[in-house]
Amino acid sequence: MLYPVCRTKIKGGKITGKKLYYDGSITISSDILEAAGIQPGDMVEVLNLNNGARVSTYVIEGPEKTGEICPNGPAARFFEEGDEIIILGICFANEKERKQLKMRLVSLADNNRTIKIGGAHVRNKEKD
Question: How many CB atoms are located within 10 Å of the residue 115 CB?
């Protein structure tokens, strides 16, 4: 049996724009993707701390070091520029894999700069 597991968490991010009339997805600066271990096409959950929205979509790679985090298509309706978000990268793991999996934690600061990369066992509670 496979279980959905959170393998990466990006916190402290801010929406930099939105493109409603686009096919879908979320565009994320390539340096943020690299820090989080997320590949273009990966499915992510995007949580909006300003309004409680939770959107599932796929990732498009944006230009490096721009700090871009831009929801596209219908997902854009749930976000406004400046909204604080959390991005969760999800994977599927069997029983053995999920016990060994360590979630990668990426913290962003002003202009969506990566300031901290760490890891924790998924079973451990994160301390903020």
Answer: 11
